[in-house]
Amino acid sequence: MDLSAHITKHHYLAECICQRLSEEINKLGFPLGEIKHYPHYNEASYVLIKDPYTGEHNLTCYWYDEFKKLRIGRLQFNSDGTFYAEYDVIKTHPGKSKWFVEGVTAWGKAENIKAEAKLLQIPD
User: pTM for the whole thing?
Assistant: First the structure.
């Protein structure tokens, strides 16, 4: 299967994952407009990466900042039907000043998308 076939095959699930990541960001309570970038499947760069265990090719999607220099997110579809995604937020939590939001993650399978924020406690 070539790259464009993988991109098409995973389109619907990828859109659902991006929506779930965006919901996790929004649940944190940032003021409207503070988050400038959300994950969108059609804005990713795509590559196929060979899984050393299965020999199958996994579709991996990368998101970059507006200057296309820093990677700010990743979504990988594994040959066993699972996926893992992460997307950077890099801001102090809007409601908990002692916490820093590193990003959000999502994982699972099509029928069970799990997601959560990655928080770090700011030392006193």
Answer: 0.93
- Give the whole-angstrom CA distance, residue 119 versus residue 114: 16
Question: Closest Cα partner for 55 from 83, 79, 81?
Answer: 79
Per the listing, tokens 């992460």 go with 86
Q: Are strands 45-50 and 71-77 parallel, antiparallel or unpaired?
A: unpaired
Cα–Cα distances (Å) from 109 to 1, 14, 54, 78, in that order, read 20, 11, 18, 10
Whether the CA torsion 89, 117, 7, 55 is positive or negative: it is positive
pLDDT tens, position by position, 64-102: 998 878 999 999 999 899 999 999 999 999 999 899 999
- Give me the amino acid identity at 39: P
Q: Return the amino acid letter for 66.
A: E
